[in-house]
Design brief:
Blueprint (H helix, E strand, L loop, with lengths): L14 E2 L4 E2 L6 E2 H6 L3 H12 L2 E7 L2 E6 L2 H9 L4 E2 L6 H4 L10 H4 L10 H17 L2 H19 L4 E3 L1 H5 L2 H9 L4 H16 L4 H21 L5 H6 L6 H33 L1 H8 L5 H11 L6 E6 L3 E3 L2 E3 L4 E4 L1 H4 L10 H4 L18 H18 L4 E2 L21 E3 L17
Parallel strand pairs: 3-4, 5-11
Antiparallel strand pairs: 1-2, 4-5, 6-8, 7-13, 8-11, 9-10, 12-13
Helix pairs in contact: 7-9, 7-18, 9-10, 9-13, 10-11, 11-13, 13-14, 13-15, 13-18
Amino acid sequence: MSTDHLPAHPNGAAFDLATGRASSTADLMPLSRITAAPDPAILYQRLRATWGEVARVELEPGVPAWLVMGWPEIAIIARNEAVYSRDARNWRDLREGVVAPDSGLGPMMFWRANVIGADGAEHRRLRAPLDDLVTRIDHRRLRRSVEAICADLVASFAARGHADLIAEYAAVIPMLAVASLFGLDTGKGFQLLAGLMALFGSGDDSQAGNASFEDILAAHMRTRRTAPADDLTSALINHPALYGDAEILQSIAVMVSAGYETTLIWIAQTLRLMLTDPRLAGRVNGGRLGTDEAMDEVLWRDPPMTHMPTRFALRDTELGDRYIRAGDALVLGLAAAGSDARIHTGERVMDLGNRSHLAWSIGPHACPARDPARLIARTAVETILNLLPGMKLAATTADIPLRPSPWTRCPAVLPVVFPPPPTPLRPARAARNP
C-alpha cells in the first residue's frame, strides 16, 4: 500500500490514522516508554495530538494495541461486553502467531479460567465469590493487623535514621496483609512477593514468576482442603459457585495479585507525593496529614494501574474516530483518563472531592476491593508518618527510578532520612493473622 497520502507521525513515520496501520510497529510508541516516563502526561498529550483519544501503541516489539485515553471512550469499552471482551482467546495477534506463546505479556494478557477472562453470565458466576469474600473481611480486625505489621517494620529500621520505603515498607505491608487474610504465613508472603514482581513486570521472567506464584497458592489450597481454617482460602474452597480446584486457584490468584500490586503502588505513590509536594509536605510536618486528600490525588495522577489490560474487539467497530478491527487489543489508559479535560478540570479547588476517576475501572469488571485497599493504604501511610515525624525524601523526584512494567508506575526505591526516635520503638504485640 502506498503511504504517500498518509499523515506524518512526529518521528517521521507514516500512519493511516483511521486504522492505526503504519509501515511497521517500530513506528509506534511503546507502552512501557509511557510508564517509564518522568511525566506520562507529556506523552499522552503527544499521542492525543496525533491520534485523538484512541492511539495506536506497541506492547512489545512487533505487537500493537490501541491505548484508549478518553474517559467516555473507556466507559464505552468497560460497559459493553457485547463488543469488547475480556477473553484473550479473541486476540487476533495471538491466534495468528504475532504474539509468541512464551511472551512476557502472557501472565497479564493471556486467557485464564478466571473472572478476569470471562464475560456475561460466566463472569457474574465467577465474580460472586469475590464479592462475597470482600463482605467477609472484618475491617477493624484488618486495621489492627496492618497497624501491627507497620509498627513491626518501622521498629526494624527506626534506629538507623534512614530506610528504603519500598523494599522495607510499602512492598511488604500489602503482601503480608493480603497473605494473612488467606491464611498464608509471613514466609510464604515473601515468596509470593518475588513471583508477583516478575509477573507485573511483563519481562522475560514473567512466566516463571507466575508459575512460582501459582505453585505456592496451589500447595496452600491443598493444605486447606485437609485442614480448613477461618480464612478466605477456606471460604473459596467451600463456595458453591466455584467448580473444581482450577477455578478456586484462579480466584485466589486474582484476589492476592490484584490486592498486592495495586495497594503497594497506592502506598508508595501517596508517600512520595506527601514527602515531595510542598502543599502536602507542610501539612505532614505540621501534624495534619491530609492522607485521604493525597490518596485521592494519586488516584487521579498516578493510579495503581496506569494501563489496564485488556479488552478485545468482537467485531469491527469505531471508537473515538478510529476503526477498530475484530480481534484488536485495547488497553484502558486509566491514568490518561485522569487528564481528560471533559471530566477533570485540573483545578484543585474545582476538583476537591471529585472521585470520578477511573482508578478502579468501571462497569462489570470494576475492582470489588477498593474499601479494604483504602484501609490498608491509609493505615500504612499514617502509621509511618506518625511514628517517624520529620521524615524527608533523601533523593530528588527525578532520581527515583521506576520498576519496569508497561502496566504500572511503581517507584523502585524511596530513600528517606529521619531523626531516630528518642525512645526505641518496640515491635507490635498484636497478632499478624486477623
